């Protein structure tokens, strides 16, 4: 977990350094050339630089230990800051790109001069962005491989959005640089500012798409996702095999930070067990589950009768009319 934190910090720091240098160069090039596409790219890089600061703040604040007011810690704060990144990408990058594009298309943009400076800045920017993107791509791909998940599924289900944010930002930056280069080149070749304005608008569309993707990822994490289904299945199987358990009535999991899972379990214990037997079994099972899955941070186990009608209704309302796992060798009883 500490290694992943260090890797995420390295990814964000590298992206910040690259974006800061690129932003300065693009601002100078936009002023010199008067290109709408270059101005849009400058706003894009300024937004990305600001975003890396937000991501660093989120990384720092989310690892604070739990306290009385926040007994589960501050893990979810990372999602707040990453959601702000999505808002900044749209507000600082996309809207400005749309504005520049419309200005150019309606003939209110600056007169473009020799774009050679823009070409040089775009080329250097592409190399720097590619370096930052490679680091983010390597981290995300490595995390997906460790989780044993396909790349796209990992992006959809991960509880660690920081490196994905950097990767998406850098991917958008690389595509945006190509769009800006194309718009400027077509403007130079045809003498029409239409192409430069169109390039700026397409950059705005691109940034809007990235902002929506990031927003959706972090919205789900803030609402509260279930843990990895593979963890849930393994927990259910382990508990069903315990000699003290007749029935696994209900399992609720919730991610509340990167690699941090809250586990709540309702179990029907064998009737002949004493209170002391149940207490010792709960302690042992909790320890075994934590050893099997380091992501499980907090565990709550509640003894319940599986035939309680109100509890059965609540479980069915959440998951549908699906029978829970009994102790091996016991008959399966489907809920009424």
TrEMBL record:
Sorted keywords for this record are: Coiled coil, Membrane, Transmembrane, Transmembrane helix, Transport
One Gene Ontology term from the biological process aspect of the record = zinc ion transport
TM ranges: 12-36, 79-101, 116-133, 172-195, 201-223
The record's section on InterPro entries has: Cation_efflux, Cation_efflux_CTD_sf, Cation_efflux_TM, Cation_efflux_TMD_sf, SLC30A9
Recorded hits in SUPFAM superfamilies, A to Z, give: Cation efflux protein cytoplasmic domain-like, Cation efflux protein transmembrane domain-like
Gene Ontology terms: cellular component:
membrane
Offer an example of a GO molecular function term for this protein: monoatomic cation transmembrane transporter activity
What topology does the record note for this protein and the membrane? Multi-pass membrane protein
- Main subcellular localisation: membrane
Any idea where the Cation efflux protein transmembrane domain is? 12-222
| Record carries keyword S-adenosyl-L-methionine | no
Task: Reply yes or no: does the keyword Acyltransferase apply.
Answer: no
Subcellular location(s) per record: Membrane
Q: Which residues form a coiled coil?
A: 275-302
Question: What is the official name of this protein in its record?
Answer: Cation transporter
């Amino acid at each position: 977990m500490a290694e992943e934190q260090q890797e995420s910090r390295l990814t964000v720091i590298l992206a910040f350094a690259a974006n800061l240098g690129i932003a300065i160069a693009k601002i100078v090039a936009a002023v010199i050339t008067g290109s709408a596409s270059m101005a849009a790219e400058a706003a894009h890089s300024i937004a990305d630089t600001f975003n890396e600061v937000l991501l660093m703040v989120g990384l720092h604040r989310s690892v604070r230990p739990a306290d009385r007011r926040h007994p589960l810690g501050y893990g979810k704060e990372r999602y707040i800051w990453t959601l702000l990144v999505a808002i900044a990408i749209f507000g600082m990058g996309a809207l400005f790109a749309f504005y520049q594009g419309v200005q150019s298309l309606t003939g209110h943009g600056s007169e473009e001069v020799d774009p050679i400076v823009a070409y040089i800045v775009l080329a250097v920017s592409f190399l720097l962005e590619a370096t930052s993107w490679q680091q983010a791509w390597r981290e995300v791909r490595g995390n997906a491989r460790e989780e044993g998940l396909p790349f796209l599924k990992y992006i959809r289900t991960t509880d660690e959005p920081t490196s994905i944010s950097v990767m998406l930002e850098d991917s958008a930056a690389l595509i945006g640089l190509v769009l800006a280069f194309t718009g400027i080149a077509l403007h130079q070749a045809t003498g029409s500012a239409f192409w430069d304005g169109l390039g700026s608008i397409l950059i705005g569309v691109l940034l809007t798409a990235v902002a929506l993707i990031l927003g959706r990822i972090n919205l789900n994490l803030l609402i509260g996702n279930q843990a990895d289904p593979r963890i849930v299945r393994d927990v259910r199987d382990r508990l069903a095999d315990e000699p003290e358990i007749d029935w696994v009535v209900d399992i609720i999991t919730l991610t509340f930070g990167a690699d941090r899972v809250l586990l709540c379990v309702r179990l029907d214990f064998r009737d002949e067990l004493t209170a002391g037997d149940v207490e010792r079994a709960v302690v042992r099972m909790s320890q075994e589950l934590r050893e099997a899955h380091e992501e499980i941070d907090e565990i709550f186990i509640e003894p319940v009768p599986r035939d309680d009608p109100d509890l059965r209704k609540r479980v069915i309302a959440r998951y549908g009319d699906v029978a829970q796992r009994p102790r091996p060798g016991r008959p399966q009883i489907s809920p009424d």
